[in-house]
User: Which sequence fits this backbone?
């Protein structure tokens, strides 16, 4: 098997999903730690790996790939991972594809959009954009509601009422974890009404630990340090 | 085989991609014509098929599915379609997944976003939004540039230098066709510099005709009628 290199910034939610997936499944890889704040993704060297200049990306021998969902599917098919991650049943697989497609323009736009608007943009000196933030929050709340009513119905453990997690669970939960960097008040306002979402996040965490916490360690440290600065 | 129903509005680019795909591949289906302008997607009856209240969606026996890329993949796997539409080679398939993931937040946001901002929003009585339109146009132009430099390199016939079209070619080209409803001046400004894109659109059209033109007939008629009104 060709050697696998993962170009990832653990501050990035799709980067974390891929790292956790590989660790949980015993897939050997070399992690190239990219720091987006230092512009590691903007070098000519990295552009040869991922012309989109984004993380994550992988190199598997001489084969390179970007887009985290495409990477998760590729790795699930290449390596001998448990079937629940990317089920072979056509209809289950189709429903998971639909959730991952939906994610791009719903949960991700809401969550990443809110953080970019309220945390990242001000640090880059951009003017406040309360309408933009409100629009992202509406999208995020609507996404939580969709996940609960459609894919975590009844007492579902994981998406589509499955009893083990899939790559879609991992991708969506890593996105939701990014909300940790918001203030407690903001995060509670958004997520507190969604009890099924909270339980589901815990379940994905438990199903993938100790790797989930290991890969999220950097995020936890950033959160702790910013709370200390606030206090 | 269970019977297939496609809920589609031919004014919608992902609806057209699915209809063309089925016709080209001799997949039998019943088309339920939805009119988004009349709110056909907002009925309780349709919500049972697609709770997202969007088109397209399919019902295959008692199995329902939304998100056009997930539908195209599902149909390609269920029916005996030519392998070039959704190649079995893992790496080729992964690259096509990446293009389709990329599409959601790039070409689609640019093209559909521009049309929504400049054509749909004014019809709904919303105020002009020149900054929004300019942002969408930037995204669209950047997407054209990415497609040409990454996936239509050299004298490529289809995406990834393949000699036959894939579901990604069909999805992206149907998106680009939507620009027909803009004024000639606007469309030329955007697409004229991109000769490879123009040739590729023609190739996908030729590879899927007479069905491509048949399914686009409604769009052509809307364009002709609005040109007549202008004149």
Assistant:
């Amino acid at each position: 098997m060709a050697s696998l290199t993962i170009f990832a910034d653990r501050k990035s939610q799709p980067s974390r999903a891929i790292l956790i997936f590989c660790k949980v499944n015993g897939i050997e890889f070399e992690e190239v730690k990219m720091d987006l704040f230092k512009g590691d993704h903007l070098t000519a060297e990295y552009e040869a790996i991922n012309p989109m200049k984004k993380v994550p990306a992988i190199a598997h021998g001489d084969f390179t790939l970007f887009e985290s969902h495409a990477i998760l599917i590729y790795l699930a098919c290449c390596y001998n991972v448990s079937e629940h991650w990317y089920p072979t049943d056509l209809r289950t697989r189709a429903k998971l594809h639909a959730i991952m497609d939906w994610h791009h323009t719903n949960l991700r736009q809401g969550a990443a959009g809110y953080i970019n608007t309220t945390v990242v943009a001000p640090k880059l000196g951009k003017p406040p954009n309360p309408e933009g933030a409100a629009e992202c929050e509406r999208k995020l709340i609507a996404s939580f509601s969709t996940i609960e009513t459609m894919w975590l119905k009844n007492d579902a453990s994981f998406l589509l009422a499955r009893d083990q997690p899939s790559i879609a669970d991992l991708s969506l939960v890593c996105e939701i974890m990014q909300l940790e960097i918001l203030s407690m008040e903001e995060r509670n306002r958004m997520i507190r009404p969604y009890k099924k979402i909270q339980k589901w996040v815990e379940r994905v965490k438990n199903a993938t630990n100790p790797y989930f916490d290991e890969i999220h360690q950097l995020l936890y440290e950033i959160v702790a340090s910013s709370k200390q600065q606030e206090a």
Summary: Chain B has a mean pLDDT of 96. Chain B touches chain A at residues 51-52, 63, 65-67, 69-71, 73-74, 77-78, 90-91, 93-95, 97-98, 101-102, 104-105, 146, 149-150 (CB under 8 Å). The two ends of chain B are 50 Å apart (CA to CA).
